[in-house]
Amino acid sequence: MSEEHVHSSIEEAGGAATGFTGTIENWNADAEARFADTLMEVGKFVQGESGCLLGHIKAAVFKDDGNGLTLNLIDMDNGVEHHGTLARNDLVKFNFMCAVLDVDEDELQHFMLHAIDDSGLDYHIDIESLRHHHEHHHHDEECTCGHHHHHDESCPCHGHEHEHHHHHDESECTCGHHDHHDEDCPCHEHEHEHEHHHDGGCCHHHHDE
Predict the structure, then answer these.
(1) Per-residue pLDDT for 204 more than 90?
(2) Contacts of 15 (CB under 8 A, 6+ apart)
(3) Do 161 and 183 lie in a common domain?
C-alpha cells in the first residue's frame, strides 16, 4: 500500500495525517538511534491520546541522490523498524510523517516538533513544509504543551514557535522554557531553537557539549 494511499485512507476515516521535511547535520549511527527514539516518543503520545497506535509513523532519511533509509513505527510492541542503511554523512535530508486515527492533527504536529526538538539531533526544518500544513490548519489557540510561546502578528508564518534558552519580560508562561519577542522574526511558526539568534533563517541546532 502506497504512502499516499495510507494518508488518504487515514484522512477519510477522520484521522490525522501530517508531517514536515528538513535536513540533519552529522548523520551517523547515533543520529539514527535518536531519530528512532523520536518516532517512539510520538508513538507514546498517540497511544496516550487514542489508547493505541492506529496508523503509522515514518521517517525517510536520504542523500541528494535519493539513497537512504526509512524508519517505520506501526506497532509499539515491535518498536521502530529500520529499512536500508545510510553511512555517515555531513548533511542528509529527512521527511517525518505521521498518519494516525483519533488524534488532533495540530496537536500531533505540535508534538512531533517537540519530539524532534528534544532528540538532540542537529536539524533544520523546512518552514515551507509547515506553512503548507497550516494553509488548511491555521489556528491561534492558547498552547498548553509545556513550552513558552510568543505570538508576533507581523510575522509571516505565525503559529507555534518553540524556543529554548531565550528570556523575555512580556508574556507570562507556566511551562518552564523561555522565548523572546523579536519583531523582525521571519519564521514565527514551528521553530524550535537552542541558544540560537534570529538571523533570517530557521535553524534548529542542538549541540551536545
Answers:
(1) no
(2) 54, 55, 99, 100, 101, 102, 103
(3) yes
CATH number of the domain at 77, please: 3.30.70
The radius of gyration of the chain from alpha carbons, rounded to an integer in Å, stands at: 17
CA distances from 139 to 23, 143, 158, 159 (A): 26, 10, 9, 7
| Grid cell for residue 10 | 487515514
CA distances to 85, 202, 207 from 195, rounded to whole Å, are 32, 13, 10
Tell me, yes or no, whether 139 lies in a domain.
no
* Structural domain boundaries enclosing 189: 145-209
Answer yes or no: is pLDDT of 206 > 60: no
Q: CB–CB of 77/47 below 8 Å? A: no
Express each pLDDT in 95-142 by its tens digit: 999 999 999 999 999 999 999 999 999 999 999 998 765 554 444 444
